[in-house]
Amino acid sequence: MALLVLIIVAAACAPTSKRPEVSKAASEAEADKQRELIIEDRMEKYQRLANIAYPFLERNIDLCKDKTKISLEGIWVNRYSFGKEYEGTMTRMGFANTANLFATGNGSALTLAGVSVGDALIGINGWAIPAGKDAIKHAGEKLDELTSHSTTIRLDVQTKNGPRQIDVTAHRICAYGFAVETKDEVNAHADGENIVITTGLMRFTQNDYELATVFGHEMAHNVMGHMGKKETNAAIGGVFDVLFALFGGNTQGAFGQMGAEAYSKSFEAEADYVGLYLMARAGYPVDGAANIWRRFALTNPGSASATLAVSHPPTPERFLALEQTAVEIDGKIKAGAPLNPEIEK
After folding, report:
1. pLDDT single digits (tens) 224-237
2. How far apart are CA 68 and CA 340, in angstroms?
């Protein structure tokens, strides 16, 4: 009886207007178009981030100390990079089964040599890249091998105007990776090896200046070794958790958590300070850098537990410290002094 009532109610609520018939072929074509738009959007975001990242990585190598590498300064993908679902779309868009330049920065080694986004990499110093899903990996290993003893690399490139051989003089840069994470959360983080920016943050930032401010802050966490220091503090706190456990106590890891959070505010303040120096050395003015953090404080978009406004608490003291740092940097620029942060050794 209940089932009969449910059927009657469902029938009574059914749409009655005429619906256009969509063929399977048209539906598949639309899905392919949407995948193409997604790929183009990813390319645009990576290109935007690469234009910001490479000057930071290239012009701050002295602060990165031994954490540097020789690089062509480019992000490579192929038709297999986004998974099986995207292979057909990637192929139709002209992505090779070896490697295509997906993004690079203005003034990068590749840009200066004349390699363009979309160009297919076929060979390196006469070595043919094995085609297939592991082509990017093999090409990266070959480049690492060659740049370990030489900065000039000859690339065999397939351009839209035909094949070319291009000599690229690689640049030394800070050995930190960077990535765009597909998340609506307005956030960014550094893990000691990489700087990750969410798509939500890229939408939130009104211009590249604001994005560069956040990038500099996150890179400063890596430069200053904050992740390693947090792990050390957590390990020390974990010792107390173990000691309590030996006597029958269960702290549920509270001391380890306290250790990991120890000096967090100081780390954030230090990342603000050093980050502005990284930014100035990368070629950006620093006068209005505090404003992006004010916008986070005022807007606090997205999830309350996953935004920069929460993980990087905005306070009046923070804004004032940023502005004082900007004055310090501007003073050094006017005096022709080296743009080195005042770091205790």
Report:
1. 998 865 444 333 33
2. 18
